[in-house]
User: Fold this.
Amino acid sequence: MTKRATVESTADAYLELLVARGVEYFFANAGTDFAPIIEAFAKRAAAGQPVPRPLTVPHEVPAVSMAHGYAMVTGRPQAVMVHVIVGAANAIGGIMNAARSNAPILFTAGRNPITETGHAGSRDRPIHWAQESFDQGSLAREFVKWDYELRNFAQLETVVDRALAIAQAEPAGPVYLTLPREILGERQETFDYAPTSRAPRPTETVAARAPIAKAAQILAGAAHPLIITKAVGRDPVAIPAMVALAEALGAPVIEQFHTFLNFPQDHPLHGGFDATPYFGRADAIVVVESDVPWFPSGSHPRPETKIVHVAHDPLFSRYPVRGFEADVALAGHPRLTLLALADAVKSIVDPAAVQDRRRRAEEEHRRLREEWASRAKAAARANPIEMTWVSKCVGDLVDDQTIVVNEYDLDTTQASFTVPGSYFASSPAGGLGWGLGAALGAKLAAPDKTVIATLGDGAYMFGAPTAAHWVSRAYDLPILTVIFNNRAWNAVKRAVHSFAKDGWAARGGAMPLTELDPPPDYELVCRASGGWAEKVEDPAALPDMLQRALKVVREEKRQALLNVIVKKPA
Ligand SMILES: Cc1ncc(C[n+]2csc(CCOP(=O)(O)OP(=O)(O)O)c2C)c(N)n1
Assistant:
């Protein structure tokens, strides 16, 4: 059974279809290629027809990051549209982030008209010659799961449904659809389409019984099993399955380089964020959704340690080189794999050994918390403010209605994230500028939650803050931004220290190419878009300032920003 809609153009039909497919938002950074789309939005508004809500985002980095933020909270892809090749080029850092974080996005760009005359959408601007490229899809191709150019009206439904289905199929990720202006602008009268997508939706998968049993044998037979994870929490429902496996084994769970909340931090088997101290003893390790569980050139497991990988794609096949070895690799939905493993382990493991391990893991859990608390205590009065103290003060604000989007500097030892979907960190791709947009997208997805973006001053600047604060005000998305302002790119400095310990750069004064002094008054950037924003230099004032900022966000529903001046790294 099909549905028939009266439409004026392909663009009109496209919007009709996006709504029918549940796409709620259309994050856009427009150009001349948008003319048929803008006309269709206006026509549908005048006719009272539904549309995905159009949001103007005046820079492509936050535009893509907003769709990323929305997808990481809801799991659902939204549409992003940017201006031909130049908009796509600006957006691609964000697409790389989304690809490596498995965030589904329908990424689209107009395609420059190819006809010089003869169509409603033919070239009529000087840029229409220089903005054509030989292969526009190639700009994004390596970092999307699929790309295509819409060739004609007849294929609209098939192409959009295929794009959305591929984006969401695991491992999820962005897809790229280019939309030629002539096609979008073509006159149409009716559009017949199926009310719901009939594109194949691959079902959840789990490894066969034999490899699960083999992995369970390895784990149940180990004296010191260990679980390392980075991103299994992308699926919040997988977290109870992680708990089930950890409890079945009595094994500590380490969130190493984590980009999601993967295991409740207050669970006694949460073993912290650094696996190094465990490697000497671990005789079996389960690596769960982790592209980089350790550094082969740094601290790593003993060669005889048995390794089990659990992931949608344990090969991380989109990475050119990744040499982490495995004795058993269990592909499929980690939630199902972990539950199956937990069941298999329970039936064969020695309960006394589990009890014993659990007792030791709990002791270590307590010891670590004491160590982290004393670190915060020591930092509390330090002036200039220390990063640890900012982390502790922000950490104290986290409740079960908070989402933190962390691009760089929040130290999670100083917080206690326990609710699935409450913590998100930068993509493994590390394209800076993600945090501000992702926090706005998260707020759009979870309007009743308090969203806090914790950003380095570097990360803040990469996030096109003028555009992001504008979006926050224009679309009523009040978030709290906390800038950890060390007036430097410390990550780059750290890389230099590790590359050339005590070398020229480390011994000299100001390290070239890593300094951000003199710092702008970032609070003024937020105030320029109607936000409440202050600079904080006194460590004792920080908790109160954070409370005031939260009040602004929660009660006045206005964005807030704290520019926290912290100790400058060497
Ligand atoms: C788009 C992009 N450009 C450059 C880099 C390289 N880079 C990695 S970390 C970093 C500095 C981050 O600075 P900041 O956010 O202030 O945090 P800090 O390192 O000072 O803690 C830079 C420039 C990057 N990751 N992404």
Q: What stands out?
A: The CA atoms of residues 252 and 271 lie 5 Å apart.
